[in-house]
Design brief:
By secondary structure, the chain is of the alpha+beta class. The chain has one domain. 29% of the residues lie in helices and 30% in strands. The chain contains 2 helices and 5 strands. The chain has a 5-stranded mixed sheet, with helices on one face. Strand 4 and strand 5 form a beta hairpin. The termini are far apart.
């Protein structure tokens, strides 16, 4: 019985983050891991952008997981060609992944 408890304790301490992605726009080439991904929490970008998809981050009850969750969201954005995340209204951590236009 003790072995089972020792096995599950690390999982309880680490927590669980779920990241769900839904493609809602065009297909873009993945961006390098070093690409900056901007996060817009309270305003929209000043320039135009194309929406690529919606990202929902779950299990943000622990403040220590917020930074890790945002890092995972940025990784997903880069993987689908996005260079910005726009927080969508509501209680959940839901973001639009977008490609900010540079032209």
């Amino acid at each position: 019985m003790k072995r089972i408890l020792y096995f599950f304790i690390p999982f309880l301490l680490v927590g669980c983050i779920s990241v769900k992605y839904i493609n809602t726009g065009g297909e873009y080439k993945a961006l390098p891991a070093t690409t900056e991904v901007k996060v817009f929490l309270s305003k929209l970008p000043d320039t135009g952008y194309d929406e690529i998809g919606i990202l929902v981050i779950g299990a943000l009850k622990d403040e220590n997981l917020m930074e890790q969750s945002l890092n995972e969201a940025k990784q997903k954005a880069r993987a689908v060609g996005g260079n910005a995340l726009i927080k969508l209204p509501g209680v959940e951590w839901k973001f639009a992944i977008v490609k900010i236009k540079t032209d």
